[in-house]
Design brief:
There is one protein chain. It is built from 19 helices and 28 strands. The termini are far apart. Strands 3-2-1-20 form a four-stranded antiparallel β-sheet, with no helix packed on it. Strands 4-5-6-7 form a four-stranded antiparallel β-sheet, with no helix packed on it. Strands 8-9-10-11 form a four-stranded antiparallel β-sheet, with no helix packed on it. By secondary structure, the protein is of the alpha+beta class. It has two domains: about 35-270, Tachylectin-2, Chain A (5 Propeller), CATH 2.115.10; about 300-740, Glycosyltransferase, CATH 1.50.10.
Length: about 750
């Protein structure tokens, strides 16, 4: 059986072609101004879909397919779809012997938002918006008795009160519901052997319309196929869907091919509708930002940059190998079967939102940088530039669609999510002219949502000015660099956004705090017009520029200083000066890699002792990295040091670093990266071993290939910036109100120094 619920747009004139123009435009009657206004604000359309015991497949309005994993359906249970909370998105529900479980999102696995009891074993569940308030209501059919309740259902469970108990039909046929007259409220009906009996109002079930549409053996479906605000009829015969836009004198306006497999039930799924656009199907009606705020960079070219030096060419070559892997062997393993999907169900690909979002975001940015800076080689990758653009577009579109600012219940607004938004947003920005208006709007919403959140958050610190350590073993340097780079990117990408100046100021605040030392807390030195003493409320690094994370002195987390320098890259691409805050203690941190020497067996301030052989992190004459207390990610990593060194070389005059020259370090570590590639045992461009067990020893991170590729891409981007011209410094005042620091939990704190 088929049900349909949620808010209904009133009738308005729109032609909507299903499945990429395979269906003819559907004519609808002209609407009154009031109805047209309601329709424009609602913007929904029904699409053919099938639901199964564990998922949903659908055909989108202008072409392409989507699939979503759904909560497991118990044996004997019925899958339902509805807008249970009135947020404009139609999501999943389950009816099983009188118990209803309702979810408010499709984009990720979660417990049901509401569980209630309404009905009993043997009842046929129905849903509809009985009172026109935009919320899908519940109902059950018991023979010819229809028992209806109004939503939203009680959040605490229990049993909703009966709103209507009425008699309709003779107890035979399939119950159906729909807004037959476009008034915003659903009526009820019965289908049997191609005959329909429909009542426009649950308050007047005796006033019914009869229609003939279909044949014995057909399966009924009901939906607003043309986005007019009124439901039409449909029948599924084999793999063919015959769809009518009206209930009086129905006739087929469209035929769709979507074959239900064994165990799948045909349904109509209500999705957001932007005429002519492949719209995110799980989107709600609101947006956090506007694509019109985005100013694309004018500093990019698709032509190979000529005149770069040997090491830059080698970095570009390493990047091209990673692109070859992403678009070749990995694409075949992960993405080829999904190429017909307009949107990917990313959040069900992994139990970790980080792996589900960050990994494709890194891949998208890698290929986008190559495409726009002359580092993409179709001959090497085996895929055309157009294929590369489609790859980036599909990943960016899907990640942005899955963000909570676009789709209710999506990812975002949490720890590290600003970094994922920056990776995705940067990939989109680089190819902005190749994206659809809808994808641009979704990307803008994602970036603005994350930037607005971070611009008001308190700056986190590892330690307080008196030496108290708040988070032993866990510097906040990394979090601050993630968030500073997102805010800086957002301001560069959207300089006209209402809060762009606040984003830029908060970015400077976080950048200064990222690798601040205890001495900074009492320093009168001005950075972007504000003294360190006034700006800071703690510190995140040791005085020598090292940082403590995972309860060890950790070079990998110190290397995240490069994210601040990547923010400088974005400012250059936006033709803006870069705040001097982005280089605060950058030279100190970079110098530490080649000047701070560790004695094997000596105690570490992070606890434990230093591992043999001792010495500096950067090894003279070698490409390997010394980890003073070991590395929980694997000691074979090289690509992020390639990016770090490339940026240190490009911004050397702003850093004043001591020790190894960045260019020399870059040459050494790029050689190490190439050695990893050569020893992988594969010829497909992957960095790490083809043996999964050995690869996991080289780097324990599940996204090691994507992480290496993205760092090689940002290394090349830095060298590209060096070629077109390093940005000038912005020494102007950038300050935000400093929130009151919360008191630390004294019992668990330790103290640094006297």
């Amino acid at each position: 059986m088929l049900t349909r619920g949620g808010s209904r747009p009133a009738a308005y004139a729109v032609a909507c072609a299903l499945l990429g123009g395979l269906l003819p435009a559907l004519a609808v009657q002209a609407a009154s101004p009031a109805e047209a206004a309601r329709a424009a604000s609602a913007g929904h359309v029904s699409v053919p879909a099938v639901v199964s015991a564990d998922g949903l497949r659908a055909a989108l309005p202008v072409g392409g397919r989507v699939t979503y994993a759904l909560p497991a359906l118990p044996g004997g249970g019925a899958r339902m779809l509805g807008d249970w909370n009135g947020d404009g998105a139609q999501t999943a529900g389950i009816f099983d012997a009188g118990q209803w479980q309702l979810w408010n999102q499709l984009q990720r696995s979660a417990p049901p938002a509401v569980t209630v009891t309404f009905g009993q074993l043997g009842d046929v569940p129905v849903t509809g918006d009985w009172n026109g308030d935009g919320i899908t209501d519940l109902g059950v059919v018991r023979g010819s008795e229809w028992i209806l309740a109004l939503g939203p259902v009680p959040a605490g469970g229990g049993t909703p009160p009966v709103w209507r108990d009425l008699t309709f039909g003779d107890g035979t046929g399939t119950p159906v519901t729909g807004d037959w007259d476009g008034d915003g409220s659903d009526g009820i009906g019965v289908f049997r052997d191609g005959r329909w009996v429909l009542a426009e109002s649950v308050d007047a079930p005796a006033v019914a319309v009869k229609a003939a549409y279909g044949a014995p053996g057909d399966r009924p479906v009901v939906g607003d196929w043309d986005g007019s605000g009124a439901d039409g009829l449909g029948v599924v015969r084999g793999s063919t869907w015959y769809l009518s836009n009206r209930v009086e004198r129905p006739r087929s306006a469209a035929h769709v091919e979507l074959a239900p497999a064994v165990g799948e039930t045909p349904v109509a799924w209500q999705v957001a509708n932007v005429p002519g656009a492949t719209t995110c199907p799980t989107a709600g009606p609101g947006r956090s930002g506007k694509a019109s705020w985005v100013v694309p960079s004018t500093q990019l070219t698709s032509h190979v940059v000529t005149g770069v030096d040997r090491i830059a060419r080698r970095v570009r070559g390493s990047l091209q190998q990673s692109e070859r892997y992403l678009l070749g062997a990995q694409y075949d393993a992960l993405w080829r079967r999904t190429r017909v999907y307009s949107y990917l169900d990313l959040l069900h690909r992994s139990s970790s939102a980080e792996l589900a979002i960050r990994l494709p975001a890194m891949s998208a940015l890698t290929v986008a940088i190559g495409l726009r800076t002359g580092a993409y080689d179709p001959t090497l990758t085996g895929r055309t530039r157009a294929s590369g653009v489609r790859y980036v577009d599909q990943l960016v579109r899907s990640i942005a669609c899955a963000h909570g600012s676009v789709s209710p219940g999506g990812w975002g607004r949490g720890w590290e999510t600003g970094h994922w938004a920056m990776l995705t947003g940067a990939a989109a920005w680089l190819l902005w002219d190749r994206l659809t208006p809808q994808t641009r709007a979704d990307v803008a919403s994602m970036v603005v949502s994350e930037a607005d959140r971070l611009s008001t958050q308190e700056v986190p610190y590892w330690g307080l000015p008196d030496g108290t350590i708040l988070t032993s073993g866990d510097t906040k340097a990394e979090e601050n660099t993630w968030n500073a780079s997102l805010l800086a990117f957002a301001a560069a990408m959207m300089p006209s956004a209402p809060r762009a100046t606040v984003w830029r100021a908060q970015s400077a605040e976080l950048a200064v705090a990222a690798f601040s030392t205890r001495a900074d807390d009492s320093s009168s030195r001005l950075v972007n017009g504000v003294s360190l003493a006034d700006r800071l409320r703690g510190f995140n690094a040791y005085a020598n520029g090292t940082v403590e994370n995972h309860h060890r002195i950790h070079p990998d987390y110190a290397s995240n200083v490069q994210l601040l320098w990547t923010a400088a890259d974005f400012d250059r691409l936006a033709r803006r000066r870069v705040p001097v805050a982005m280089f605060h203690h950058g030279g100190l941190v970079y110098s530490a890699f080649s000047t701070v020497s560790y004695q094997a067996g000596a105690p570490s301030p992070a606890g434990g002792t230093f591992a043999p052989p001792g010495g500096t992190v950067y090894r003279p004459g070698h490409s390997w990295i010394y980890y003073p207390q070991g590395d929980d990610w694997g000691a074979a990593r090289r690509a992020h040091f390639v990016s770090l060194d490339a940026h240190a070389r490009v911004y050397a005059s702003y850093l004043g670093a001591r020790g190894w020259a960045a260019g020399r370090a870059l040459a050494r570590h790029e050689t190490g990266q190439r050695a990893l590639l050569a020893s992988s045992g594969a010829t497909d461009g992957r960095t790490y071993s083809i043996d999964p067990a050995l690869a996991a020893q080289q780097d324990t991170y599940p996204g090691r290939e994507e992480y290496a590729a993205q760092n090689l891409a940002t290394a090349w981007l830095a060298l590209y910036i060096e070629k077109i011209g390093v940005p000038r410094l912005d020494r102007g005042t950038l300050g935000v109100p400093v929130p009151t620091t919360k008191a630390p939990k004294a019992p668990t704190a330790t103290r640094l120094g006297p």
